[in-house]
Amino acid sequence: MPMSTLVRQVALEHPFQDQKPGTSGLRKSTRQFATPHYLESFVEAALRVVPGIEGGTLVVGGDGRHGNRHAIDVISRMAAAHGVARLILSTGGILSTPAASHLIRSRGAVAGIILSASHNPGGPDGDFGVKVNGANGGPAPESLTDAIYAATTSLDGYRILDAEAIPLDHPGDHRLGDMDVTVLDGVDDYVALMQQLFDFERIGALLRSDFRLAFDAMHAVTGPYATRLFEGLLGAPAGTVRNGVPLEDFGGGHPDPNLTYAHELAALLLESDAYDFGAACDGDGDRNMILGRRCFVNPSDSLAVLTANATLAPGYSGGLAGVARSMPTSAAADVVARALGIPCFETPTGWKFFGNLLDAGRITLCGEESFGTGSNHIREKDGLWAVLFWLQILAVRGCPVSTVIGEHWQTYGRHYYSRHDYEAIASDAAHGLYDRVKGMLPSLGGSRFAGRTIATADDFAYTDPVDGSLTSGQGLRLLLDDGSRVVLRLSGTGTQGATLRVYLESFVAPGGDLGQDPQTALGDLITAIDNLAEIRERTGMERPTVIT
Protein backbone atom coordinates (compact mmCIF):
# COMPACT_ATOMS: atom_id res chain seq x y z
CA MET A 1 0.00 0.00 0.00
CA PRO A 2 1.49 3.42 -0.88
CA MET A 3 2.67 5.35 2.11
CA SER A 4 0.52 8.37 1.30
CA THR A 5 -2.64 6.42 2.13
CA LEU A 6 -1.34 5.70 5.63
CA VAL A 7 -0.40 9.27 6.59
CA ARG A 8 -2.75 10.93 9.05
CA GLN A 9 -3.02 14.70 9.42
CA VAL A 10 -3.73 15.68 13.03
CA ALA A 11 -5.11 19.16 13.66
CA LEU A 12 -4.08 21.30 16.63
CA GLU A 13 -6.69 23.54 18.22
CA HIS A 14 -3.99 25.91 19.45
CA PRO A 15 -0.22 25.89 18.93
CA PHE A 16 1.97 25.49 22.00
CA GLN A 17 3.75 28.65 23.10
CA ASP A 18 6.29 27.17 25.56
CA GLN A 19 8.54 25.08 23.32
CA LYS A 20 11.59 27.34 23.13
CA PRO A 21 14.73 25.18 23.39
CA GLY A 22 17.40 26.01 25.95
CA THR A 23 21.12 25.43 25.70
CA SER A 24 20.58 21.68 25.26
CA GLY A 25 17.23 21.29 23.53
CA LEU A 26 13.68 21.32 24.87
CA ARG A 27 13.49 20.05 28.45
CA LYS A 28 10.23 19.77 30.34
CA SER A 29 8.71 17.49 32.93
CA THR A 30 7.81 14.00 31.76
CA ARG A 31 4.18 14.85 32.44
CA GLN A 32 4.37 17.95 30.24
CA PHE A 33 5.71 15.86 27.37
CA ALA A 34 2.83 13.43 27.95
CA THR A 35 0.35 16.23 27.19
CA PRO A 36 -1.54 15.26 24.02
CA HIS A 37 0.27 16.46 20.88
CA TYR A 38 3.10 18.10 22.87
CA LEU A 39 5.94 15.87 21.68
CA GLU A 40 4.47 15.69 18.19
CA SER A 41 4.29 19.49 17.94
CA PHE A 42 8.00 19.98 18.61
CA VAL A 43 9.01 17.11 16.33
CA GLU A 44 6.76 18.42 13.53
CA ALA A 45 8.41 21.83 13.75
CA ALA A 46 11.87 20.27 13.64
CA LEU A 47 11.03 18.07 10.65
CA ARG A 48 9.67 21.11 8.77
CA VAL A 49 12.65 23.34 9.56
CA VAL A 50 15.77 21.12 9.48
CA PRO A 51 17.37 21.25 6.00
CA GLY A 52 17.48 18.07 3.92
CA ILE A 53 14.88 16.07 5.87
CA GLU A 54 13.01 14.87 2.76
CA GLY A 55 15.17 12.20 1.16
CA GLY A 56 17.77 12.39 3.94
CA THR A 57 19.05 10.13 6.72
CA LEU A 58 18.00 10.72 10.33
CA VAL A 59 19.50 9.27 13.54
CA VAL A 60 17.21 8.87 16.57
CA GLY A 61 17.99 7.48 20.03
CA GLY A 62 18.01 8.35 23.68
CA ASP A 63 19.19 7.66 27.20
CA GLY A 64 16.49 5.14 28.08
CA ARG A 65 14.54 7.31 30.49
CA HIS A 66 10.76 6.96 30.89
CA GLY A 67 9.07 7.77 27.58
CA ASN A 68 12.12 6.95 25.46
CA ARG A 69 10.66 4.07 23.44
CA HIS A 70 7.32 5.79 22.95
CA ALA A 71 9.05 8.91 21.64
CA ILE A 72 11.19 6.86 19.25
CA ASP A 73 8.03 5.26 17.84
CA VAL A 74 6.32 8.63 17.39
CA ILE A 75 9.37 10.24 15.77
CA SER A 76 9.89 7.23 13.49
CA ARG A 77 6.35 7.39 12.15
CA MET A 78 6.50 11.16 11.76
CA ALA A 79 9.82 10.87 9.93
CA ALA A 80 8.24 8.44 7.47
CA ALA A 81 5.36 10.87 6.94
CA HIS A 82 7.84 13.65 6.11
CA GLY A 83 9.75 11.74 3.47
CA VAL A 84 12.89 10.75 5.40
CA ALA A 85 14.64 8.15 3.23
CA ARG A 86 16.55 6.31 5.96
CA LEU A 87 16.18 6.15 9.72
CA ILE A 88 18.92 4.82 12.00
CA LEU A 89 17.83 3.53 15.42
CA SER A 90 19.68 1.64 18.16
CA THR A 91 18.87 -1.57 20.02
CA GLY A 92 16.65 -0.89 22.99
CA GLY A 93 16.49 2.72 21.88
CA ILE A 94 19.69 3.21 23.92
CA LEU A 95 22.09 5.66 22.30
CA SER A 96 24.45 7.95 24.17
CA THR A 97 24.75 11.54 23.00
CA PRO A 98 28.43 11.09 21.97
CA ALA A 99 27.56 7.89 20.07
CA ALA A 100 24.69 9.69 18.34
CA SER A 101 27.02 12.49 17.28
CA HIS A 102 29.43 9.95 15.81
CA LEU A 103 26.65 8.11 13.95
CA ILE A 104 25.34 11.34 12.45
CA ARG A 105 28.80 12.14 11.14
CA SER A 106 29.84 8.67 10.02
CA ARG A 107 26.52 7.75 8.35
CA GLY A 108 26.07 11.05 6.53
CA ALA A 109 22.83 11.95 8.33
CA VAL A 110 21.23 15.35 7.84
CA ALA A 111 20.36 15.49 11.54
CA GLY A 112 19.80 13.55 14.72
CA ILE A 113 17.10 13.69 17.38
CA ILE A 114 18.45 12.82 20.84
CA LEU A 115 15.94 12.01 23.57
CA SER A 116 17.38 13.04 26.89
CA ALA A 117 17.19 15.55 29.69
CA SER A 118 20.87 14.82 30.33
CA HIS A 119 21.61 14.85 34.07
CA ASN A 120 18.03 15.64 35.14
CA PRO A 121 16.08 12.91 37.00
CA GLY A 122 13.90 10.50 35.00
CA GLY A 123 10.72 8.53 35.53
CA PRO A 124 7.06 9.60 35.40
CA ASP A 125 7.76 12.36 37.94
CA GLY A 126 11.08 13.34 36.38
CA ASP A 127 12.07 15.15 33.21
CA PHE A 128 12.24 14.44 29.49
CA GLY A 129 14.01 16.21 26.68
CA VAL A 130 14.33 16.41 22.90
CA LYS A 131 17.45 17.82 21.28
CA VAL A 132 18.10 18.33 17.58
CA ASN A 133 21.65 17.91 16.30
CA GLY A 134 22.84 19.10 12.90
CA ALA A 135 24.68 17.34 10.10
CA ASN A 136 28.05 18.02 11.76
CA GLY A 137 26.90 15.94 14.74
CA GLY A 138 26.70 18.90 17.08
CA PRO A 139 23.80 20.67 18.79
CA ALA A 140 21.74 22.75 16.40
CA PRO A 141 22.84 26.40 16.24
CA GLU A 142 20.59 29.07 17.70
CA SER A 143 19.46 30.12 14.24
CA LEU A 144 17.95 26.65 13.75
CA THR A 145 16.49 26.26 17.24
CA ASP A 146 14.96 29.74 16.95
CA ALA A 147 13.37 28.71 13.66
CA ILE A 148 12.00 25.52 15.23
CA TYR A 149 10.55 27.51 18.11
CA ALA A 150 8.96 30.01 15.72
CA ALA A 151 7.35 27.13 13.83
CA THR A 152 5.87 25.66 17.04
CA THR A 153 4.13 28.95 17.88
CA SER A 154 2.11 28.95 14.67
CA LEU A 155 1.65 25.22 14.06
CA ASP A 156 -1.82 24.11 12.98
CA GLY A 157 -1.18 20.36 12.93
CA TYR A 158 1.24 17.52 12.28
CA ARG A 159 1.62 14.50 10.00
CA ILE A 160 2.20 10.96 11.25
CA LEU A 161 2.18 7.50 9.68
CA ASP A 162 -0.21 4.94 11.14
CA ALA A 163 1.90 1.80 11.52
CA GLU A 164 3.21 -0.71 14.03
CA ALA A 165 6.22 0.30 16.10
CA ILE A 166 9.62 -0.81 14.83
CA PRO A 167 10.97 -3.64 17.06
CA LEU A 168 14.09 -2.45 18.86
CA ASP A 169 15.22 -5.53 20.76
CA HIS A 170 17.62 -6.78 18.08
CA PRO A 171 19.62 -5.32 15.18
CA GLY A 172 17.90 -5.57 11.83
CA ASP A 173 16.54 -3.82 8.76
CA HIS A 174 12.91 -2.79 8.42
CA ARG A 175 10.57 -0.80 6.22
CA LEU A 176 8.22 1.89 7.49
CA GLY A 177 6.10 3.19 4.64
CA ASP A 178 8.64 4.26 2.02
CA MET A 179 11.40 4.72 4.62
CA ASP A 180 14.24 2.27 5.26
CA VAL A 181 14.91 1.69 8.95
CA THR A 182 18.14 0.23 10.34
CA VAL A 183 18.30 -0.87 13.96
CA LEU A 184 21.95 -1.29 14.96
CA ASP A 185 23.90 -1.98 18.12
CA GLY A 186 24.52 1.55 19.38
CA VAL A 187 27.75 0.53 21.11
CA ASP A 188 29.68 -0.91 18.13
CA ASP A 189 30.54 2.21 16.15
CA TYR A 190 31.44 4.20 19.24
CA VAL A 191 33.81 1.56 20.58
CA ALA A 192 35.54 1.33 17.19
CA LEU A 193 36.10 5.10 17.29
CA MET A 194 37.64 4.91 20.77
CA GLN A 195 40.02 2.20 19.55
CA GLN A 196 41.32 4.63 16.92
CA LEU A 197 42.10 7.29 19.54
CA PHE A 198 43.60 5.35 22.44
CA ASP A 199 46.10 2.55 23.00
CA PHE A 200 43.81 -0.23 24.21
CA GLU A 201 46.68 -2.66 24.67
CA ARG A 202 48.43 -0.31 27.08
CA ILE A 203 45.24 0.66 28.95
CA GLY A 204 44.23 -3.00 29.12
CA ALA A 205 47.57 -3.93 30.67
CA LEU A 206 46.93 -1.30 33.36
CA LEU A 207 43.42 -2.56 34.11
CA ARG A 208 44.57 -6.19 34.24
CA SER A 209 47.27 -5.33 36.78
CA ASP A 210 46.64 -4.53 40.44
CA PHE A 211 45.14 -1.19 39.35
CA ARG A 212 41.60 -0.98 40.76
CA LEU A 213 38.92 0.87 38.77
CA ALA A 214 35.34 1.67 39.79
CA PHE A 215 32.99 3.11 37.17
CA ASP A 216 29.46 4.25 38.05
CA ALA A 217 27.05 4.33 35.10
CA MET A 218 24.29 5.63 37.43
CA HIS A 219 21.73 3.28 35.79
CA ALA A 220 21.98 5.52 32.74
CA VAL A 221 23.01 5.19 29.12
CA THR A 222 26.74 4.47 29.51
CA GLY A 223 26.23 1.13 31.25
CA PRO A 224 26.36 -1.02 28.08
CA TYR A 225 29.21 1.06 26.64
CA ALA A 226 31.33 0.91 29.80
CA THR A 227 30.71 -2.81 30.26
CA ARG A 228 31.84 -3.54 26.70
CA LEU A 229 34.88 -1.28 27.04
CA PHE A 230 36.18 -1.92 30.55
CA GLU A 231 35.05 -5.45 31.40
CA GLY A 232 35.08 -6.73 27.81
CA LEU A 233 37.79 -5.29 25.60
CA LEU A 234 40.11 -4.00 28.34
CA GLY A 235 39.82 -6.95 30.68
CA ALA A 236 38.82 -5.27 33.94
CA PRO A 237 37.20 -7.60 36.49
CA ALA A 238 33.46 -8.22 36.43
CA GLY A 239 31.75 -5.71 38.68
CA THR A 240 34.04 -2.87 37.66
CA VAL A 241 30.98 -1.20 36.14
CA ARG A 242 28.46 -0.34 38.84
CA ASN A 243 24.79 0.43 38.23
CA GLY A 244 25.35 -0.63 34.62
CA VAL A 245 21.78 -1.47 33.59
CA PRO A 246 19.90 1.55 32.15
CA LEU A 247 16.61 2.10 33.99
CA GLU A 248 13.71 4.37 33.07
CA ASP A 249 14.00 6.24 36.38
CA PHE A 250 17.79 5.78 36.77
CA GLY A 251 17.08 3.63 39.82
CA GLY A 252 15.44 6.57 41.54
CA GLY A 253 18.69 8.48 41.49
CA HIS A 254 19.86 11.72 39.96
CA PRO A 255 22.18 10.85 37.02
CA ASP A 256 24.52 13.78 37.56
CA PRO A 257 28.19 12.77 38.07
CA ASN A 258 29.29 15.06 40.87
CA LEU A 259 30.22 14.68 44.52
CA THR A 260 26.63 15.19 45.64
CA TYR A 261 24.77 12.74 43.42
CA ALA A 262 27.57 10.17 42.91
CA HIS A 263 28.31 10.17 46.62
CA GLU A 264 28.72 6.39 46.92
CA LEU A 265 31.46 6.36 44.29
CA ALA A 266 33.02 9.45 45.86
CA ALA A 267 33.15 7.74 49.25
CA LEU A 268 34.90 4.71 47.76
CA LEU A 269 37.67 6.90 46.34
CA LEU A 270 37.94 9.77 48.77
CA GLU A 271 37.43 7.99 52.10
CA SER A 272 39.39 4.78 51.56
CA ASP A 273 42.29 3.27 49.63
CA ALA A 274 40.22 0.51 48.05
CA TYR A 275 40.40 1.91 44.50
CA ASP A 276 43.00 3.69 42.40
CA PHE A 277 40.63 5.38 39.95
CA GLY A 278 36.95 6.19 39.86
CA ALA A 279 34.72 7.72 37.23
CA ALA A 280 31.05 8.32 36.52
CA CYS A 281 28.97 9.55 33.60
CA ASP A 282 25.57 11.22 33.43
CA GLY A 283 22.18 10.33 31.99
CA ASP A 284 23.07 10.63 28.30
CA GLY A 285 26.79 9.92 28.61
CA ASP A 286 28.28 13.27 27.74
CA ARG A 287 29.50 14.32 31.21
CA ASN A 288 32.19 12.79 33.39
CA MET A 289 33.57 12.90 36.89
CA ILE A 290 37.17 11.81 37.52
CA LEU A 291 38.46 10.64 40.89
CA GLY A 292 41.78 9.28 42.09
CA ARG A 293 42.60 7.68 45.41
CA ARG A 294 41.67 10.43 47.91
CA CYS A 295 41.71 12.91 45.04
CA PHE A 296 38.86 14.71 43.25
CA VAL A 297 39.69 16.17 39.84
CA ASN A 298 37.98 19.50 39.24
CA PRO A 299 36.55 19.48 35.68
CA SER A 300 38.40 22.71 34.85
CA ASP A 301 41.66 21.09 35.93
CA SER A 302 40.76 17.98 33.96
CA LEU A 303 40.63 19.94 30.70
CA ALA A 304 43.98 21.54 31.51
CA VAL A 305 45.60 18.17 32.32
CA LEU A 306 44.28 16.58 29.11
CA THR A 307 45.64 19.55 27.15
CA ALA A 308 49.06 19.27 28.80
CA ASN A 309 49.26 15.48 28.25
CA ALA A 310 47.39 15.15 24.95
CA THR A 311 50.29 13.76 22.93
CA LEU A 312 50.39 10.65 25.15
CA ALA A 313 47.27 9.40 23.32
CA PRO A 314 47.77 8.05 19.77
CA GLY A 315 44.85 10.06 18.41
CA TYR A 316 46.48 13.32 19.51
CA SER A 317 50.18 12.47 19.13
CA GLY A 318 50.61 15.15 16.47
CA GLY A 319 49.74 17.94 18.89
CA LEU A 320 46.77 20.26 19.27
CA ALA A 321 45.51 23.01 16.99
CA GLY A 322 44.05 24.84 19.98
CA VAL A 323 41.79 24.51 22.98
CA ALA A 324 38.55 26.19 24.04
CA ARG A 325 36.63 26.52 27.29
CA SER A 326 33.31 27.97 28.28
CA MET A 327 33.47 31.35 30.01
CA PRO A 328 32.57 30.06 33.51
CA THR A 329 35.28 27.39 33.30
CA SER A 330 38.51 28.29 35.09
CA ALA A 331 41.47 29.67 33.17
CA ALA A 332 43.64 26.63 33.96
CA ALA A 333 43.60 25.56 30.30
CA ASP A 334 44.61 29.08 29.22
CA VAL A 335 47.89 28.77 31.11
CA VAL A 336 48.70 25.43 29.47
CA ALA A 337 47.79 26.76 26.03
CA ARG A 338 50.17 29.69 26.46
CA ALA A 339 52.96 27.30 27.43
CA LEU A 340 52.27 25.14 24.37
CA GLY A 341 52.00 28.14 22.07
CA ILE A 342 48.48 27.29 20.92
CA PRO A 343 45.33 29.48 20.99
CA CYS A 344 42.75 29.24 23.75
CA PHE A 345 39.20 30.46 23.09
CA GLU A 346 36.66 31.57 25.71
CA THR A 347 33.09 30.84 24.58
CA PRO A 348 29.58 31.09 26.05
CA THR A 349 28.13 28.10 27.88
CA GLY A 350 26.69 25.51 25.50
CA TRP A 351 28.54 22.93 23.44
CA LYS A 352 27.23 24.35 20.16
CA PHE A 353 29.60 27.30 20.56
CA PHE A 354 32.55 24.94 20.15
CA GLY A 355 31.14 23.59 16.89
CA ASN A 356 32.37 26.35 14.57
CA LEU A 357 35.85 26.24 16.10
CA LEU A 358 36.02 22.46 15.70
CA ASP A 359 34.66 22.48 12.14
CA ALA A 360 37.13 25.19 11.17
CA GLY A 361 40.05 23.24 12.63
CA ARG A 362 40.85 26.02 15.11
CA ILE A 363 40.74 23.74 18.17
CA THR A 364 41.27 20.07 19.03
CA LEU A 365 40.12 19.90 22.68
CA CYS A 366 37.35 21.74 24.48
CA GLY A 367 35.57 21.64 27.81
CA GLU A 368 33.16 23.09 30.33
CA GLU A 369 33.27 23.30 34.09
CA SER A 370 29.98 21.39 34.22
CA PHE A 371 31.82 18.06 33.92
CA GLY A 372 32.01 18.09 30.11
CA THR A 373 35.09 17.55 27.96
CA GLY A 374 35.54 16.57 24.34
CA SER A 375 37.55 16.86 21.17
CA ASN A 376 37.32 17.01 17.40
CA HIS A 377 36.44 13.28 17.21
CA ILE A 378 32.75 14.24 17.49
CA ARG A 379 30.77 17.44 18.07
CA GLU A 380 29.51 16.75 21.58
CA LYS A 381 31.14 16.39 24.96
CA ASP A 382 32.01 12.77 25.67
CA GLY A 383 32.13 11.24 29.13
CA LEU A 384 33.66 7.84 28.38
CA TRP A 385 36.21 9.42 26.03
CA ALA A 386 37.43 11.56 28.95
CA VAL A 387 37.67 8.49 31.21
CA LEU A 388 39.69 6.61 28.58
CA PHE A 389 41.94 9.65 28.09
CA TRP A 390 42.73 9.74 31.81
CA LEU A 391 43.42 6.00 31.82
CA GLN A 392 45.74 6.51 28.84
CA ILE A 393 47.70 9.17 30.76
CA LEU A 394 47.95 6.99 33.86
CA ALA A 395 49.03 3.96 31.81
CA VAL A 396 51.81 5.91 30.08
CA ARG A 397 53.03 7.92 33.06
CA GLY A 398 52.78 5.08 35.55
CA CYS A 399 51.71 7.24 38.49
CA PRO A 400 48.49 7.88 40.43
CA VAL A 401 45.98 10.63 39.71
CA SER A 402 47.16 12.69 42.69
CA THR A 403 50.70 12.81 41.28
CA VAL A 404 49.47 13.90 37.85
CA ILE A 405 47.45 16.70 39.44
CA GLY A 406 50.16 17.74 41.90
CA GLU A 407 52.86 17.94 39.23
CA HIS A 408 50.49 19.89 37.00
CA TRP A 409 49.95 22.53 39.70
CA GLN A 410 53.68 22.72 40.39
CA THR A 411 54.27 23.43 36.70
CA TYR A 412 51.34 25.70 35.82
CA GLY A 413 49.99 26.95 39.14
CA ARG A 414 46.62 26.17 40.69
CA HIS A 415 43.29 27.77 39.89
CA TYR A 416 41.25 27.31 43.06
CA TYR A 417 37.77 26.95 41.70
CA SER A 418 34.25 26.10 42.80
CA ARG A 419 30.68 26.35 41.58
CA HIS A 420 27.81 26.96 43.99
CA ASP A 421 24.36 26.04 42.69
CA TYR A 422 21.22 27.40 44.31
CA GLU A 423 18.49 25.24 42.81
CA ALA A 424 14.71 25.56 42.49
CA ILE A 425 14.64 29.24 43.47
CA ALA A 426 11.34 30.99 42.87
CA SER A 427 11.69 32.51 39.43
CA ASP A 428 10.81 36.05 40.54
CA ALA A 429 13.38 35.96 43.33
CA ALA A 430 16.12 34.59 41.06
CA HIS A 431 15.55 37.11 38.31
CA GLY A 432 15.22 39.93 40.82
CA LEU A 433 18.62 39.08 42.32
CA TYR A 434 20.26 38.70 38.92
CA ASP A 435 18.78 41.86 37.41
CA ARG A 436 19.79 43.88 40.46
CA VAL A 437 23.46 42.84 40.12
CA LYS A 438 23.31 43.40 36.37
CA GLY A 439 22.11 46.94 36.98
CA MET A 440 25.01 47.52 39.36
CA LEU A 441 27.73 46.52 36.87
CA PRO A 442 28.46 50.01 35.44
CA SER A 443 29.26 51.33 38.93
CA LEU A 444 31.36 48.40 40.20
CA GLY A 445 34.58 48.99 38.24
CA GLY A 446 37.35 50.22 40.55
CA SER A 447 35.48 49.34 43.74
CA ARG A 448 36.84 47.07 46.46
CA PHE A 449 35.75 43.43 46.63
CA ALA A 450 37.14 40.72 48.93
CA GLY A 451 40.25 42.77 49.62
CA ARG A 452 40.89 43.28 45.93
CA THR A 453 39.84 45.76 43.27
CA ILE A 454 37.25 45.00 40.58
CA ALA A 455 39.08 45.61 37.31
CA THR A 456 36.13 44.81 35.04
CA ALA A 457 32.44 44.22 35.67
CA ASP A 458 30.45 43.15 32.61
CA ASP A 459 27.81 40.89 31.08
CA PHE A 460 29.83 38.49 28.92
CA ALA A 461 29.37 38.72 25.15
CA TYR A 462 31.05 36.57 22.50
CA THR A 463 31.84 37.29 18.87
CA ASP A 464 32.37 34.02 17.02
CA PRO A 465 35.80 34.19 15.32
CA VAL A 466 34.59 31.93 12.48
CA ASP A 467 31.25 33.41 11.40
CA GLY A 468 31.28 36.76 13.23
CA SER A 469 27.99 36.13 15.03
CA LEU A 470 27.44 37.92 18.36
CA THR A 471 26.06 36.19 21.46
CA SER A 472 25.38 38.46 24.41
CA GLY A 473 23.96 38.26 27.93
CA GLN A 474 25.97 35.18 28.87
CA GLY A 475 26.83 35.84 32.50
CA LEU A 476 27.73 38.58 34.94
CA ARG A 477 31.49 38.76 35.50
CA LEU A 478 33.50 40.45 38.22
CA LEU A 479 37.15 40.30 37.10
CA LEU A 480 39.50 41.27 39.92
CA ASP A 481 42.93 42.87 39.69
CA ASP A 482 44.80 39.75 40.85
CA GLY A 483 43.24 37.45 38.25
CA SER A 484 40.47 36.16 40.51
CA ARG A 485 36.91 36.01 39.18
CA VAL A 486 33.33 35.69 40.29
CA VAL A 487 30.63 34.88 37.72
CA LEU A 488 26.85 34.72 38.13
CA ARG A 489 24.55 32.89 35.71
CA LEU A 490 20.95 31.71 35.67
CA SER A 491 20.65 28.19 34.30
CA GLY A 492 18.60 27.56 31.17
CA THR A 493 18.34 23.77 31.57
CA GLY A 494 16.20 23.28 34.67
CA THR A 495 12.47 22.50 34.68
CA GLN A 496 11.43 23.61 38.19
CA GLY A 497 12.03 27.20 39.22
CA ALA A 498 15.40 28.74 38.44
CA THR A 499 18.98 27.81 39.32
CA LEU A 500 21.50 30.48 40.25
CA ARG A 501 25.07 29.41 39.56
CA VAL A 502 27.94 31.23 41.28
CA TYR A 503 31.43 30.53 39.93
CA LEU A 504 34.46 31.41 42.06
CA GLU A 505 38.11 31.34 41.01
CA SER A 506 41.42 32.37 42.57
CA PHE A 507 44.85 31.71 41.01
CA VAL A 508 47.97 30.74 42.97
CA ALA A 509 51.23 30.62 41.01
CA PRO A 510 53.73 27.72 41.17
CA GLY A 511 55.59 27.86 44.46
CA GLY A 512 52.61 29.28 46.31
CA ASP A 513 50.23 27.50 48.70
CA LEU A 514 48.84 24.79 46.40
CA GLY A 515 47.39 22.49 49.07
CA GLN A 516 44.43 24.41 50.45
CA ASP A 517 40.84 23.24 50.52
CA PRO A 518 39.12 25.14 47.67
CA GLN A 519 36.26 26.36 49.89
CA THR A 520 38.80 27.78 52.33
CA ALA A 521 40.91 29.35 49.60
CA LEU A 522 37.79 30.94 48.12
CA GLY A 523 36.21 31.92 51.43
CA ASP A 524 36.65 35.68 51.04
CA LEU A 525 35.15 35.60 47.55
CA ILE A 526 32.19 33.52 48.78
CA THR A 527 31.44 36.02 51.55
CA ALA A 528 31.89 39.04 49.30
CA ILE A 529 29.54 37.86 46.53
CA ASP A 530 26.90 36.83 49.07
CA ASN A 531 27.00 40.35 50.53
CA LEU A 532 27.00 42.07 47.14
CA ALA A 533 24.24 39.98 45.54
CA GLU A 534 22.31 39.42 48.79
CA ILE A 535 22.06 35.72 47.91
CA ARG A 536 20.93 34.36 51.26
CA GLU A 537 18.54 37.22 51.85
CA ARG A 538 16.87 37.04 48.44
CA THR A 539 16.78 33.26 47.98
CA GLY A 540 16.05 32.31 51.58
CA MET A 541 18.77 29.66 51.30
CA GLU A 542 21.49 29.45 53.94
CA ARG A 543 23.79 27.40 51.71
CA PRO A 544 24.02 26.18 48.11
CA THR A 545 22.14 23.07 47.03
CA VAL A 546 25.23 21.69 45.32
CA ILE A 547 28.89 22.66 45.68
CA THR A 548 31.37 21.42 43.08
Nutshell version of this structure?
With 548 residues, the protein is an alpha/beta fold.
Describe the structure.
There is one protein chain. By secondary structure, the protein is α/β, with parallel strands linked by helices. The chain has 18 helices and 27 strands. Helix 10 (299-308) runs parallel beside helix 11 (332-340).
Distance between the termini: 57 Å
Which regions have little confidence, pLDDT < 50, spanning 5+ residues? none
Basic shape? globular
Portion of residues in helices? 25-40%
Q: Kindly report the spatial arrangement of strands forming the biggest sheet.
A: 2-6-5-3-4-9-8
What is the structural class? alpha/beta
Arithmetic mean pLDDT: 95
What is the number of E strands? 27
Tell me about the biggest sheet?
7 strands, mixed
Strand-residue proportion: 15-25%
Oligomeric state of shown chains: single chain
| Count of DSSP H/I helices | 18
Taking all Cα atoms into account, the compactness measure Rg is 23 Å
Secondary structure: elements and pairs:
Layout: E1 7-11, E2 26-29, H1 30-33, H2 38-49, E3 57-62, H3 68-81, E4 86-90, H4 97-106, E5 111-115, E6 127-133, H5 142-153, E7 157-161, E8 172-176, E9 179-184, H6 188-197, H7 200-207, E10 213-216, H8 222-233, E11 241-242, H9 263-270, E12 277-281, E13 288-292, E14 295-297, H10 299-308, E15 323-326, H11 332-340, E16 344-347, H12 352-359, E17 365-368, E18 372-375, H13 383-397, H14 401-412, E19 414-425, H15 427-444, E20 448-449, E21 452-459, E22 462-463, E23 470-471, E24 476-480, E25 485-490, E26 498-508, H16 518-521, H17 523-533, H18 535-539, E27 546-547
Parallel strand pairs: 3-4, 3-5, 4-9, 10-11, 10-12, 15-16, 15-17
Antiparallel strand pairs: 1-7, 2-6, 5-6, 8-9, 12-13, 13-14, 17-18, 19-26, 19-27, 20-21, 21-24, 22-23, 24-25, 25-26
Helix pairs in contact: 2-3, 2-5, 7-13, 10-11
